[in-house]
Every structure is written in structure tokens, then in C-alpha cells.
Specification:
Layout (H helix, E strand, L loop, with lengths): L1 E2 L4 H8 L10 H18 L10 H21 L6 E6 L1 H8 L7 E5 L10 E6 L16 E5 L2 E4 L13 H17 L11 E2 L1 H6 L8 H10 L7 E4 L2 E4 L1 E2 L10 H12 L5 H16 L6 E6 L2 H16 L5 E6 L8 H4 L5 E5 L9 H13 L7 E8 L11 H10 L3 E5 L11 H4 L3 E5 L10 E6 L7 H12 L2 H17 L1 H19 L5 E4 L15 E6 L4 H12 L1 E2 L1 E3 L4 H7 L4 H13 L1 H7 L3 E5 L6 H16 L4 H8 L13 H16 L7
Parallel strand pairs: 1-7, 10-20, 12-13, 12-14, 14-15, 15-16
Antiparallel strand pairs: 2-4, 3-4, 5-6, 8-9, 11-17, 16-17, 18-19, 19-22, 21-22
Length: 674
């Protein structure tokens, strides 16, 4: 049976007759409870371990509790085991580093949910040392040109932004199974929704452009939720969209349908979303391979693996990237055996030196100045996750291909903000994440020209199968892209530029603020500015600024190095001796060192933000700069350091109570089994 109905009750009534035994009601009750739980998590969703606001604290707590719930379900001792959340492909790679008796695995498939998740319970004393099986964002405490200080487990083995919502849903499902039974998520096999009903139709189908944007803002899951601050309850303002974006009800409704979708329809859904991506990215399906991953980091690690296969017997291969890069577009290239990695400089506004790019390619690939060494790949971010500036990919591509190299674009910070056409721009590889594009359900994508897919067919099929198991993530990514298309990327770009312009104008009147990147709202380069503004304060350390914004204004931003340590060191002019001291500190006194690490404060806009959010931020920045600061904090701020001296506002208890209340709402409601 195919239906386009939104109502879950309608689906239930279709399949459950009045004379049916009570057991037939179980799946519908189980899914309703799962919906309630995950919707509550989405209401306060933010990136884990990284943001400073209330929502980041809550999502982090929910994500970490998902590990404990999983260990409890497996009846394993928390003192001896740790949970690592993986994709199927990541789990297979991780297993090669472990002894068979040192781990257990439970799959989202085991519980009947299409989340593409593996929870690996690994003995703590069996965790491998050294380089993790995937490298990139979040796996490193500090990255220097020639060394990496790896973070601790479990983050060390969860490269990139983890699929936090999927893990939370997984843990919630385990609790529901304990109440309703192991088969509680098994529905009749003929429950299906049409592809049109899932991906294309919604209650806003008649809207487009600015009108749709205005309607979507009111459809944010968690819209107008209030949080405790030092001045009483206020609506939460999310200004950390560069880390991860929230979602909207039209996307959430896709999750509700796909959970119930007949598995027979999954292949058709995958094909339809591939066509959506092909159209959105100008990646003709006949020319490009589209592979679903869990995030940008996994996608780039797959490219590194493909290149390792291709360049294994090709001596002198070089990969060129830039100082702009997120660790996810830097670390994977470091560890390809026999391949060298070199860096292209950038200016203080975050733009690549085009003359240097051409000269390097000419020296290596045309004039042979470096012997047999040849630049094979130029790997560059489409936009900096710190400075928000967009490089001229068309001009870069022309130079790269002129000298016989290939172009890889890390589009994580582009996909939700600018048009990008792979065929027109002659891009060879492109990677991005759904959690940057209002679909935070553990799905990303890698798009590769088919002639560059140097990988065994069986291995490619394993990678494909791994990504396509997360049908929830794929469908929500497809839906989010259709919403962006209906709004129009030109409309989004214009809206975000207006917010940045307003913020730069407001910040220009605040003493003691230094902006990094394009500072002048009237700069000729402003058209190349994205939705990000990073700054520091003369008298207030970066981590204290972020804390005060959260506690006083209910504003969530991010501070620190943003998994782009090399760029932050360049922007802040950190001396190599000081960088070496930080590396040593992370080895000897990691907790204390973490407080003192230099960094910036980052504001990043998304679809839900408007002028009121900007004005509220400016008011709070004025308040922070006008407040007295201790001598030691002024000294630390002058050297760009963070501070361990963070006390001063008596709202910590209220924030903790609010976090606990939200956690209880997700995991610990009363469940009455049948």
C-alpha cells in the first residue's frame, strides 16, 4: 500500500483491525515513543563537544549518555568498556586493529531502524595506540606542521562530527525495546510512502523564495524555545551554524515516514536522492559517482584510500592544499604512504595566493624543478570555516587543470550557502555533510568523476552499502536540498550577506574587538564573504566571551581553534616555540592546557537567523566589553589565550538543571509496556 498521509494514526488504522490482538499495536506505540524522544532531542540540537551554548551542552550530554545506555543494554561494565559509534564501513576498518575477543557490536539493523549505525563496545585496555583508523576533525587536540597530539577515546575513533542524533535515537530505541520487546519496531512490510510524498511534497509546497524562508523560520524544530540566563528566560539564539545546523519540521516529517518505510522502497529512495544531488551540484549521473557517507571527514578519508590505491606505485606524488584547511582536509593526506603534502599560503582575509598556486604547479608539473615529483591533487576548502571567505573555485580549477592536476573541494562550508556546479567548475572530487545543510541525521556525500574511481569493485560496493544503510540520513539530506532549491541559493546568499553586513557595522562601533577575515563591510571583496564572522576581544579571553554570551544572552557561538589549528596559529601569529609548549602541555597537563589554548570566537549564521539575532548579539558584546575584567584575564586576552578563570555569573545551576530536564525528556519518560 502506498500512502502520502502525514498522520501516523492513519497508517495504524489502515493496518490494525479492531479485532487484532494487542500485540499488533506494539510497533505503532514504539514508534510514537521514539518520535517523542528524538523530537525532544532535535528541539535543542547543536554540535557535540564544541559549542558554548545551552544546546551544545544538552546534545553533548545526550550523546555521551547514549554510550552508557548501550553498555547497560549489553550488560557490560562501564569501567572496562567504551562505546565507539561507527558506520558499517568504519566498524570493519576498526575491527582490523582489534583482537576478536576485545569487542562486541550491536547494529541499528539489529533493532529494525535504518540509521546506518554500529555501536562497538571495546575493552578500554584493547584500544589501539597511534594514528586512528580515520583522521580529520575532532580526533586531534592539537595539529602542528609536523606533529599531531591525538585526543582520547572515544573521540579519537569518531572522526568528524559524529551522527549524534542517530546515536541518541539508537539509545532511545534500546530503552523502548526493553519495555516493548525486541521486535517492537517491526511493521507490516507493505507500509510505504511514495517518493513524491517523502521528498517533494509538504505543507509549504506552494511557497518559494523569501516567503518560504520566512515560513521555515517558524518551522524550526524547537522554535522559540526559552533557556535560562542571568537575566531570566530568553529565546535561544543559535549562532553556531558552521559547526552544525538544526532542522525544520518538513525534514523531521521525512524521518517519521522513512522509519516506517518498507525496505523494498529503499533502493528507489537512494536513486531519487542521487538524482536530487546530481541536479543541485551539476554532477551528471553518467559522469560522476555519488557515494553516501556519514560526514565530510569520512568522505575525504575514502578519497585518501582511493588515492593510496592509485598512487601506490607512482613515485613522487604530491598533494597540495592550503593553510585554510579544516583538519579533515589536511590530516588524511598526511598519512598516505609515499605521498608528500605541501601547503599553499593565504592572505589574512583567507584568500589563496593565485600566483603562488600557478608557480608551484608550473615548477612541479611543467618545469620539473623538483625532479620526478608531481602535484597530483589540489585539495582546497570551498570556504574557510573560520574566515567565511569563498575562494574563486573557477579560477583555481582553471590553473589546476592547466598543469594536469586534479581538483578536490571540501564543500562543507559551501553547500548551504552558495551555488556550486561541479561540471561547470571542472571539479574532480567534492565532499560535504548533511549536518551542515539542515539534515543532522548522519549522512554526507562524496561525488567523484568516474574515471578517478581507482578502487576494487567489491570494496566500492562495501563502501556504497555502508552509506546507503542510513536511509533516514539520505532521505533527509534529499529533502533539505529540495527546500534550499525552492528558497533559491541566491536568496540565501543575499539574506546571509545582509546579516554579516549588519553585524560588521555593529561591531565596528565596539571598542576592543578585532575582526579576522574581511573586516570592512564596504570591502570590494565583501561579495566573497560568507556567513561567518570570527573575532577576539582585547580584554576578555575567547572562552570567557563565549561563556558570557550563553549565560547573559542565551546565545550559542563557538570558540577555540575550530579544528583548523594551522590557520588559527597563522592568524594569531603564534610563535613556533609557543606552539611547541602547547604540544608539550597537552601531553603533560592536558586538562589545564586546554583552558589556555589561543583561539577566536566565531559567529555563523543559518536560515533561522534574522536581524533581531544580530542586534541581540551586538547588545551583549557591548555589555561584555563594558564590564570590568580581572588583570589576569586581560593579560591572557592580550596574548589571545583562553582562561581557566571563568566564574562570575550565577546561572550555572539553572543551566545544569535545564540540561538535566531536557535529558530526562528525551530518555526517561515513563514507558508503559503492553
Amino acid at each position: 500500500m502506498i500512502t502520502d498521509l502525514y498522520s501516523v494514526d492513519s497508517v495504524r488504522k489502515t493496518h490494525v483491525k479492531k479485532s487484532s490482538p494487542m500485540d499488533n499495536e506494539v510497533p505503532y506505540l514504539a514508534f510514537e515513543e521514539l518520535e517523542r524522544s528524538v523530537k525532544a532531542a532535535l528541539e535543542t540540537y547543536s554540535n557535540v563537544h564544541r559549542g558554548s551554548g545551552h544546546y551544545s551542552l544538552i546534545t553533548t550530554e545526550l550523546f555521551e549518555l547514549a554510550r552508557d545506555i548501550t553498555l547497560d543494554y549489553l550488560k557490560l561494565d562501564k569501567a572496562g568498556y567504551i562505546i565507539i559509534f561507527c558506520t558499517p564501513q568504519q566498524a570493519e576498518s576498526f575491527k582490523t586493529q582489534l583482537k576478536p575477543a576485545s569487542y562486541q557490536i550491536i547494529s541499528s539493523k539489529d533493532i529494525g531502524l535504518p540509521l546506518g549505525l554500529r555501536a562497538m563496545a571495546v575493552k578500554k585496555n584493547a584500544l589501539p595506540k597511534g594514528i586512528p583508523f580515520q583522521t580529520g576533525g575532532s580526533v586531534a587536540k592539537m595539529v602542528s606542521p609536523y606533529s599531531v597530539i591525538w585526543t582520547d577515546a572515544p573521540q579519537k575513533f569518531e572522526a568528524g562530527t559524529p551522527c549524534a542524533i542517530n546515536a541518541i535515537a539508537f539509545a532511545a530505541a534500546l530503552r523502548i525495546m526493553q519495555a516493548f520487546g525486541i521486535d517492537c519496531f517491526s511493521l507490516p512490510d507493505d507500509v510505504s510512502f511514495s517518493l513524491t510524498g517523502i521528498l517533494w511534497q509538504d505543507e509549504f509546497s506552494e511557497y518559494s523564495g523569501l516567503q518560504l524562508l520566512a515560513e521555515l523560520r517558524k518551522q524550526l524544530v524547537g522554535y522559540d524555545l526559552h533557556v535560562p540566563t542571568a537575566d531570566g528566560e530568553k529565546p535561544f539564539i543559535n549562532l553556531d551554524n558552521a559547526a552544525s545546523t538544526p532542522t525544520f519540521f518538513p525534514v523531521w516529517n521525512v524521518v517519521r515516514k522513512v522509519w516506517r518505510q518498507s525496505e523494498k522502497m529503499h533502493a528507489a529512495l537512494v536513486c531519487e536522492v542521487k538524482m536530487i544531488l546530481a541536479g543541485f551540484l551539476g554532477a551528471n549521473i553518467e559522469k560522476f559517482e555519488i557515494i553516501f557517507t556519514c560526514n565530510t571527514t569520512e568522505a575525504l578519508n575514502i578519497v585518501a584510500h582511493i588515492l593510496q590505491n592509485e598512487l601506490n606505485d607512482v613515485k613522487g606524488s604530491v598533494i597540495l592544499n592550503t593553510l585554510l584547511e579544516h583538519n579533515s582536509n589536511e590530516l588524511p593526506w598526511r598519512y598516505i604512504p609515499g605521498v608528500s603534502l605541501i601547503k599553499l599560503s593565504v592572505d589574512n582575509e583567507g584568500f589563496v595566493n593565485m600566483d603562488e598556486l600557478e608557480q608551484l604547479l608550473k615548477n612541479y608539473n611543467q618545469e620539473g624543478i623538483f625532479g620526478k615529483k608531481r602535484i597530483r591533487i589540489v585539495a582546497i576548502s570551498g570556504s574557510s570555516n573560520i574566515l567565511g571567505t569563498f575562494n574563486d573555485i573557477q579560477a583555481i580549477s582553471r590553473i589546476v587543470h592547466k598543469f594536469g592536476a586534479r581538483l578536490l573541494v571540501d564543500a562543507a562550508q559551501v553547500i548551504a550557502h552558495r551555488d556550486i556546479n561541479m561540471d561547470k567548475l571542472d571539479i574532480d572530487y567534492l565532499a560535504f555533510s548533511g549536518h551542515k545543510v539542515y539534515a543532522p541525521f548522519g549522512c554526507g556525500a562524496l561525488i567523484v568523476r568516474k574515471e578517478h574511481m581507482h578502487i576494487d569493485h567489491c570494496e566500492l560496493e562495501r563502501i556504497r552499502t555502508s552509506g546507503e544503510e542510513n536511509i533516514v540520513g539520505i532521505a533527509t539530506l534529499g529533502k533539505a536540498i529540495t527546500l534550499l532549491q525552492r528558497i533559491g541559493m541566491d536568496v540565501i546568499e543575499k539574506s546571509e550577506k545582509a546579516l554579516v553586513h549588519r553585524l560588521l557595522k555593529g561591531m565596528s562601533g565596539i571598542r576592543g574587538i578585532e575582526i579576522f577575515g574581511i573586516r570592512d563591510k564596504d570591502s570590494d571583496r565583501h561579495h566573497q564573504n560568507g556567513s561567518i564572522v570570527s573575532f577576539s576581544m582585547k580584554n576578555v579571553p575567547h572562552n570567557l566571551v563565549a561563556k558570557k554570551l550563553a549565560e547573559q544572552g542565551g546565545i550559542g557561538v563557538r570558540n577555540g581553534c575550530f579544528c583548523a589549528h594551522l590557520l588559527v596559529k597563522f592568524l594569531l601569529k603564534i610563535h613556533p616555540a609557543r606552539a611547541f609548549a602547547a604540544d608539550a602541555g597537552f601531553i603533560l597537563l592536558p586538562r589545564l592546557t586546554g583552558f589556555f589554548i589561543p583561539g577566536l570566537v566565531r559567529v555563523s549564521f543559518g536560515l533561522e537567523n534574522d536581524n533581531n539575532d544580530v542586534d541581540e548579539l551586538i547588545r551583549n558584546l557591548e555589555r561584555i566589553t563594558g564590564a570590568p575584567s580581572s588583570i589576569i584575564n586581560r593579560m591572557l586576552a592580550s596574548t589571545r589565550n583562553g582562561t581557566p578563570f571563568l566564574s562570575g555569573i550565577s546561572v550555572k545551576k539553572q543551566m545544569e538543571e535545564f540540561t538535566e530536564m531536557r535529558v530526562q525528556k528525551v530518555y526517561y519518560s515513563k514507558i508503559d509496556p503492553i
